[in-house]
Amino acid sequence: MDRVKQKARDLLDSNKVQVVIGYEEGTDGTARPVFIMDSKNIDKLIFNDRCYHNLAVYLTKVEVEKIGRVAVEASLNTLKGIVKLASEGQFVFEDIDILGVNRNGELYEFASLDEVIDYIDQHPVEYSPEEISLLRKIESMTREERWEYWQEEFSRCIRCYACRAACPNCYCDACIVDINQPQWISPTPDALGNLEWHIIRAMHLAGRCVNCGACAKACPVDIPLNILNLKLAEEISKNFGISEEFLLTNYPLAIYDPNDKENFIK
Amino acid sequence: MARIGVFICHCGENIGETVDCTKLAEVTSRFPGVVKSVDYKYMCSEPGQTLIKEAIKENRLTGVVVAACSPRMHESTFRKTCSEAGLNPFLCEIANLREHCSWVHEKSEEATNKAIDIVRALVEKVKLNEPLYPIKVPVTKTALVIGGGVAGIQAALDIANGGHKVILVEKNPSIGGHMSQLSETFPTLDCSQCILTPRMVELAQHPNITLYSYAELESLDGFIGNFKVKIRKKAKSIDENLCTGCGLCTTKCPVKKIPNEFDENLSYRKAIYVPFPQAVPNKPVIDRENCTYYLKGKCKICERFCPTQAIRFDQQDEIIEVEAGAIVLATGFDIKRADFFPEYGFGKYKDVIDGLQFERIASASGPTLGEIRRLSDGKIPKKVVFIACAGSRDPAKGIEYCSKICCMYTAKHAILYKHKIHDGQAYVFYMDIRAGGKNYDEFTRRAIEEEGAKYIRGRVSRIYERDGKLIVVGADTLMNARPVVIEADMVVLATAGVASPGSEELAQKLHVAYDQYKFFTEAHPKLRPVETNTAGIFLAGACQSIKDIPESVSQASGAAAKVCGLFSQNELTRDPLIAVVNRTAPPLYSTCVGCFLCQSVCPYQAIEKEEIKAKDGSVIKIIAKINPGLCQGCGSCVALCRTKSIDLLGYTNRQIYAEVDAILNTL
Ligand SMILES: Cc1cc2nc3c(=O)[nH]c(=O)nc-3n(C[C@H](O)[C@H](O)[C@H](O)COP(=O)(O)OP(=O)(O)OC[C@H]3O[C@@H](n4cnc5c(N)ncnc54)[C@H](O)[C@@H]3O)c2cc1C
Ligand code: SF4
């Protein structure tokens, strides 16, 4: 950690970056994101298992762009977010600095996006037993039970859009729910509106989600959104026969290929 | 304020019998914004169109809904009507009452109610329609013809004689297709080569035609009037400019035992070969799969003997890029071969052959020099059984259609056989005799009545060999299914005609629709039989469905007429129903976030990047931009865009939403 701090300090002092985005101690034993623009505050930086926020989410914000060049303390999930955003043209990889240490305790040195992808490949994430067991439980339900289950979960939604704010891939300036010409998705927090919102959110992330789980952790009413994402990711890998690695830089739902043998295309 | 006119067509009884059109007119007249609503028996007729025109003028209509048949059928008719009355054609919408309502429901109140809903949806949509103006694109006046059978040859000659440039791409070393393999042709029995060869030569010498033989389409981009074509010219291993076609190489080549495709594998050819004596171009190619030099690295005998040093062993495939304004597809057909008929011992017994093999045997230039002989022992067959519908019209074989030409060529075969072997007896097993064509029935009757062919209505269940004879076991269904057993010397199967190999891949390269049997699909079975659904691509010959020569040639001339019509204009107008990326006020400029996921979904590579720049030239934002020349309006990007930043003109999000809303609110 000291080396990460030192590097962050050097970057700020040499004015190579104008802001370091990382984690600091929050209240009640939580960790929270911090923006450090002055190197004398560098000691606030921490990195541990409590640091779950996907910091890639800040990289697309105009406000952050305005501060200047960014160095970001990156967890594996943040790295995935960075790869995804770069592949969707949201920034150029070379325009950001990545801070952190690998499993061997060495400072990250990524010369290119491909190196980040390689690194991610070598460190596959395992989903927690709780996540998997909930997923399998929902899968084993009948269609009606499943419908009931999600209706019940969604009924608590207060449309605070914390999930959207926490998600690195929800970077649209104008989210579909905010577009009212026409208003395809109802913004009203009632049964239909909530259903519409959660279906469109899941669909817009299907094939793009990096499965960091930030949405579910951000949800104040504990809707297990990560399970929806996880299920879609599984379905996509299965139906399109592709790897997670491929998913990171590609969007299978948008590939037009005349050689596609799926007969629904003809 | 919207002033909408609703015009309800009975479509004779098609709609009028099922939907209460009077009530429909009455109810729709009360919709908000509707100022005129009438029904009429045939709205597409002259008086019907006049009725619309007058209503537009009298009622100062701002939008028109014609409730009638499918927009595929008459959208352009009614849009033209509107524009003649001074209304922008894109302010006219079609409510499809026929396919979406009357044809799929029984006469009932519910059917009428559904019709009311359909019209309501279109009324709400048309209120949001904006005038649109056609897009103009230049036309490249060169046609690409793919396939050099009789259909492709005819199309190429007709277009070239119309004064336009033609590029013909043929995958084989010579043009000519199946017709060049035939001996004589029904119903006149003139010699196939004799009538085809002059056309082939004319094509090769035509100043407007460029022929690429031994070549295939590599890829296609662009759109009607402006196709960008890549052609792969396979390496022939000779320098065509130097080669004089003297044929010395083919005589000297030591590799002799390669089955000759042109003779349906009934004779042999060399590794360096010209497929047949009348080939165009009459220059050889080296078959690299069988040439000793390519297999073993040694030989080059042909090179040693070639008087003009024209052999090029190191020649590579060449990719040629050309531009074309229209394309004629004429890739023909193929027939089912041995492996398809184990029950007839086809492939096992040498004397069970297919129709094309019989053509070669009967042909003066064929492997037996025109004498009908058994392939097994060279004897003259005294009894020959012809089996029509071998594979065709047979759901069990997966081919439900009639191959159409077999009845006729089987009769021809029976006649040719009788002409050559006077004391021989021909038997024909058939299901029905399909001889609908000029002089066709007379021709089959001649086979039966004058040439003594015995026609037996029924199918053959089995063929087996006994003492050098082929025992054909069948039934005569006109005689109470009495079993028939014939001891034959030779059996000829009129095997099913099928799509030519590679049709599916080609269709996908060209974005042309094809049916379950891989035949290319015409735009309309009756009214647009030579067009495909892809603008600028036309069909000729057996690639659309099995056809005989007269039909193939007629369709080829039809396709050529379409191409010449297209080339008679310097500019094309295209419907402006294309996608556009929205623009909004700063600081957003557009709701597009530049993820460019739409780029990979676009089948036409129409999506580009556009930089939005500040006054000082610095880039503020990069967003998607749709090239109006390339966009075909398929809407894939619209569906994909998360922020709904792309709209399809004529089908905007607002319009579709209004339609859906109009339908749902009535529930
Ligand atoms: C046994 C038999 C007997 C017949 N007898 C008669 C008869 O007596 N009278 C009659 O009217 N009709 C007869 N016919 C029918 C006749 O053969 C067809 O009507 C005619 O050949 C159709 O012409 P076409 O140009 O459409 O197709 P084809 O003759 O099949 O020509 C297609 C051409 O396209 C080329 N090609 C295919 N794919 C590609 C590609 N991807 N790229 C480039 N080139 C390609 C092929 O090499 C070929 O040269 C007979 C047919 C058979 C099978
Ligand atoms: S190299 Fe030999 S085998 Fe090959 S084509 Fe020439 S003569 Fe024939």
- What is the average per-residue confidence, as pLDDT of chain B, rounded to a whole number? 95
User: What is the percent of helical residues of chain A?
Assistant: 40-55%
Walk across the major sheet of chain B and give the strand order: 10-7-6-18-29
> How helical, in percent, are the residues of chain B?
25-40%
Q: If interface size is counted as residues with C-beta under 8 Å from the partner's C-beta, which chains form the largest one?
A: A-B, 21 and 26 residues
Report mean pLDDT of chain A, rounded to a whole number: 91
* Distance between the ends of chain B: 27 Å
- What is bound: which ligands? flavin-adenine dinucleotide, iron/sulfur cluster
Strand content of chain B: 15-25%
Domain module count of chain A? 2
Please trace the helix and strand order of chain A, writing H or E for each element. Answer: HEEHEHEHHHHHHHH
Radius of gyration of chain B: 31 Å
Please count the helical segments of chain B.
18
Whole-number count of domains of chain B? 5
Fold blueprint:
The complex is a heterodimer of chains A (266) and B (667).
Chain A: H1 2-13, E1 19-25, E2 31-36, H2 62-67, E3 70-73, H3 76-87, E4 96-99, H4 113-122, H5 129-140, H6 143-155, H7 162-166, H8 191-205, H9 214-218, H10 225-240, H11 244-249
Parallel strand pairs in A: 1-3, 3-4
Antiparallel strand pairs in A: 1-2
Helix pairs in contact in A: 3-4, 5-10, 8-10
Chain B: E1 4-9, H1 21-28, E2 34-40, H2 46-58, E3 63-68, H3 71-84, E4 92-96, H4 97-102, H5 109-127, E5 135-138, E6 142-146, H6 150-161, E7 165-169, E8 184-185, E9 190-191, H7 192-205, E10 209-212, E11 215-223, E12 226-233, H8 248-252, E13 258-259, E14 268-269, E15 272-273, E16 285-286, H9 292-296, H10 301-305, E17 318-324, E18 326-329, E19 333-335, E20 352-354, H11 355-362, E21 383-390, H12 406-420, E22 425-430, H13 440-450, E23 454-457, E24 460-466, E25 469-476, E26 482-488, E27 490-495, E28 497-499, H14 503-510, E29 537-539, H15 549-567, E30 571-574, E31 579-581, H16 597-601, E32 607-613, E33 619-626, H17 636-640, E34 646-648, H18 653-664
Parallel strand pairs in B: 1-2, 1-3, 3-4, 6-7, 6-18, 7-10, 18-29, 20-27, 21-22, 21-27, 22-23
Antiparallel strand pairs in B: 5-30, 8-9, 11-12, 12-17, 13-14, 15-16, 19-28, 24-25, 25-26, 31-34, 32-33
Bound molecules: flavin-adenine dinucleotide and iron/sulfur cluster (SF4).
Iron/sulfur cluster is lined by residues 253, 255, 271-272, 286, 291-293, 299-302 of chain B.
